[in-house]
Amino acid sequence: MHILIDTKNLALYGGGIAHWFAPLLAAWVEHRPDAHFLLLGPDFNQDFLPRSGNWEHVHVAWPQWLPRPLRHPWYDNVIFPRAGARLRPDLVMSPYHDVRMPSVVPSVIGVHDLCLDELATVYPRRIRLYYLALLRRNLRRASHVITVSQTSRDKLTRRYGVPSQRISVVCNALTPHFSHAADSGAVAEFKRRFAQGGRFVLYSGGSEFRKNVGRLAEAFAQVTQTVPDLTLLVTGNEDQRWRDTLAQIPTDIRSRVAFSGKLSDAALRLAYAAADAVVYPSLCEGFGRVCLEAMEAGAPLACSDLPVMHEVAGDYACYFDPFDADAIATGVEQALIKGRCNPVKDSRFSETAVRTSFLTAMDGVIAKLEL
């Protein structure tokens, strides 16, 4: 059997979907030595894949020559479908829903959230219409759908009429380094480096439209009125959205916002171990990986009062209304008062459980093809 895999996300992005999918793909390749996997996409780091001989990377170039707004549509609707058709696969699998799935070959897509549908006023209209059109089209064609939470599964059934038996839930799992206790000296050094040795609130959720960084900055400005020594540490680099956001708050508050730059997995674990609180004010999520990371590290968590956050974090978190900056500020203050907790390890999100869920789902799809 020839299985075509869309590896665009592995090539273009380092977190999010790529972080979720890479270990699952490696496990699948190892689990199915009888299949030949065709990994179609631009160049990506292949070190995580087993040296099993049953996979090959089929390179297609990212259309860098096109203006930026046209690159994704051209790749998704022209380059990937044409290259895939030439390979004549028995099954096509994409970890996301944005590449055009074939009409005559069985396919599996990943749907991680329905934020474009739910946040009509947050995303630009052009982006919403494009991705929602592909989502609806691919949902009609897909033999099976993988999503990351029961909350998202229920929404797919309710909003799009996808039968529940065509949907499998494959949650996020943390990499093994998150289970290792952080060295106390390294924790202290991390605090000195990024928060001058004082207290800091960690934000590691990115700056995409739904991440709500404008209200986060407004809430942080309020918290510093009662906790003046506090730093807001943002993982990653200061991008244009953050620059625009910080321009709206007073200079003295702006100086309390620090950017860590890109962190390795080990350094990210250290950040959670050193944080006095973690804040996650997203307006919509499909899973809520930040919740899982905070729980595993025992970091006090303030997050949005969303069904999926409750599904992941239960009674661990201090919840707030993400549309209300005052409520976000109160949630952060409550988390700071609560203090660090004992780490919580939920078996639902273990590597073994998540890998088993994925392999079981894909075995079921292949078994139907072989009937």
List its salient traits.
single chain; Rossmann fold; seven-stranded parallel beta sheet
Characterise the protein shown here.
The chain is of the alpha/beta class and 371 residues long. It has 2 domains: 2-173 and 350-369, Glycogen Phosphorylase B (Rossmann fold); 176-346, Glycogen Phosphorylase B (Rossmann fold), CATH 3.40.50. 45% of the residues lie in helices and 14% in strands. The protein contains 15 helices and 13 strands. It has helices at 8-12, 17-31, 68-87, 115-118, 125-141, 150-160, 184-195, 213-226, 240-246, 251-254, 265-274, 289-297, 307-313, 325-338, 351-369, and strands spanning 2-6, 36-41, 55-59, 91-94, 107-110, 144-147, 167-169, 200-203, 231-234, 257-259, 277-280, 301-304, 318-320. Strands 3-2-1-4-5-6-7 form a 7-stranded parallel sheet, with helices on both faces. It has a 6-stranded parallel sheet with strand order 10-9-8-11-12-13, sandwiched between helices. Strand 6, helix 6 and strand 7 (167-169) form a beta-alpha-beta unit. Helix 2 packs across helix 15, helix 7 packs across helix 11 and helix 8 (213-226) packs across helix 14. The longest helix has 20 residues, at 68-87. The radius of gyration is 21 Å and the shape is globular.
